[in-house]
Amino acid sequence: MTGTPPNSELSPIVACTVSRDVQNFDLLIEDMELALGENWGDLGFAEALAFFGQPEAQALEFIALAIDETDEENLNHMGEIIGQAKARGIKVILIAEDVTPAALHSLLRQGADEFVPYPLPENELSEAIERVRAAEQALQASANTPALHSGAQKEGAVIVVHGLAGGTGATTLAVNLAWELATHEKKEGPRVCLIDFDLQYGAVATYLDLPRREAVYDMLADTENMDDEIFGQCLLTFEDRLEVLTAPADMLPLDLMSAQDVSRILAMARRHFDYVVIDMPSTLVTWSETVLNAAHVYFATMEMDMRSAQNALRFKRALQSEDLPVEKLRYVMNKAPKFTDLSGKSRIKRMAESLDISIDLQMPDGGKPITQGADHGIPLAQSAAKNPLRREIAKLAASILALGSTDVKAA
Length: 411
Description:
Domain AAA: 158-310
Protein name: AAA domain-containing protein
Distance between the termini: 61 Å
GO molecular function: ATP binding; ATP hydrolysis activity
Strand order of the largest sheet: 8-9-7-10-6-11-12-13
CATH topology of the largest domain: Rossmann fold
Radius of gyration: 23 Å
GO cellular component, one term: cytosol
Oligomer: single chain
CATH superfamily of the largest domain: P-loop containing nucleotide triphosphate hydrolases
Largest sheet: 8 strands, mixed
Helix content: 40-55%
Keywords: ATP-binding, Nucleotide-binding
């Protein structure tokens, strides 16, 4: 075994590599020795889960999960290792060689804190270790500091984003719209809260590289006793400008929350923030009506394909059958054709006419930088500031701010 074995009593083990065979990652061995000396060990996939339950694992700061294309057959096992590590407060640095983007994205969504490609770029592992340690220190520093204070009365505007089909850019729009609202002014801008209500597949935490707090589940399970301090301790701050309520750490049933629970959360958020941006699950649930009634504007994202058209029609009919305010809906066309694509513009027009809806916003295809920015947990304003999609979202945020929270539905 390379490095200090996990059961060594000579010195505390602060990290472990976890791989099928660490000898396949010889550069990782060198970098681990350079960064940690003898204070690390290595584990196989099967050993890792058992070791997490041992007393020696309590000193672990992080694991370096090293995988290659052969390990893609065991993604579920990889996800379980990440989940067990996160449940014990152990950071996860993902080391990947020749792994498909889909597999990489899946593991990042399940909670990996950092990603480093293999072969390792110079100093990249040590920098990743510094980042996870800094994140942990910041989390510990803020754990007992409520982000909110009693007495605030803002009655903020509620902006909702709902994807009518998977991959229509709903989370991308919600995350980047919230960031643009929060950072439009260099100083003393509006206070913005981003809420991820997708309790099963919510990816806001991934898009902003934020940890998922166990306190979120405790709050959702008992909103009757929620106060400013409890709500504040569930929030995470991104770049000192945006407050985020992530989805819980575990996959939970959507009916965990009742309409009353959602009403309490929205009332709390509106009281402390100027704008509350909500990323909704694609599924309609018992509390969807509550969010729709509270929303000042409700963005429904879609694409120019048959599944989006059918889902938009079903969505509209479902709301109309319950006499819900469909006039709040603002349909957003994701990956819209370029201005010069007259044929594409014509197809959008025919689609809107056939569905008897108005497609109010057309968001351009931002290409690979959109996925890359999300995988690295960085808003488009930082990862691809000149990207056409980022520019359109910035324009939307500016128009909302210009109208003011009392008339945000006019956006």
